[in-house]
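[Meeting: bench + compute handoff]

Bench side (C.D.) handed over the final construct sequence. Compute side (W.E.) agreed to return the predicted structure before the next meeting so the bench team could plan truncations. Sequence as handed over:
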Amino acid sequence: MRRLTIPLAAALVAAFLALSASAGAQDQQQIRAGLSAGGVDLSGLTVTDAAAKLDAALAPALNQDLVLGAAGRPWTLSMSAAKLRFDAVRTAKRALYAKAGVTSVPLALSHSHLAVKAFARFVGARVGHAARDARMRITLRHIFLSHSRPGTALDQAGAAKAIDAALDDPAAPRHVHVRLARTRPSTTANELRDRNGGTVITVDRSHFRLRLFKHLKFFKSYPVAVGMAGLDTPAGLYAIHDKQVNPAWHVPNDSWAGSLAGQTIPGGAPDNPLRARWLGIANGVGIHGTSEDWSIGSRASHGCIRMHVSDVIDLYPRVPVGTPVLID
């Protein structure tokens, strides 16, 4: 081992001296005439002198904050936050070893693209305004419509791209201006009017009235019966989810159904109380015709909304599946 130690140490010393000599020789070499970097002429300079000249000429501009103009306000990105790095020595070496015919070499300049994207997100979250959708408020007698409003948003990807370009170019101004883009609401008033033909049903349990609205305007009123005490027609906002002509009756497994509980009674059968038409709402509750005309205008059903047969036949084709139903 001792015999190997001395040659190895000698080799390391020789390598170090060779590197030192190479570095020294490199520092004595001069960049050929006509070469520049970032607009700075480096003709005839050594790497050390060229690096010093680049630092003196470019560092003040490169270290300036970038200002993004958005929504009429300035937003500042510092170069420390952008993690901008300028390696003047590496740039000078590029000039020293540039191939024949090359007159300008790129700067050894870098920054964090992730930091720029984060800055664009930060600004975007503060300058944008979400679009407002049109809304419909349903009451028993009226439909109130609030109009939509467009929003504004920063094109974050576009802003980040413009900032990246400004940071990569030492001659570019450190002021970037971007316009906010308009954003559309997902629902407009016209779309609400057109949805299901602007059809809405309201059921006024206290006054036993079913009101039909078309194009969000009152169209027609019908007398109805609603659920009796203990089997009340449920209040709330629902939607028509199915329609049937001469519907079968799937009898609930409830005590009031007696011996029919759990059975399915065919449409049109004498013991089927669902006459002519069915418009299903929720949980077995629906709108249907009845042969018990005397019950209309009272609390008489087991939760459903009863109508005269002629009225439910008139209503049926006017009401598409998906129609909102307000019961109150």
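W.E. noted at the follow-up: The longest helix spans residues 2-28. C.D. will use this when planning the next construct.
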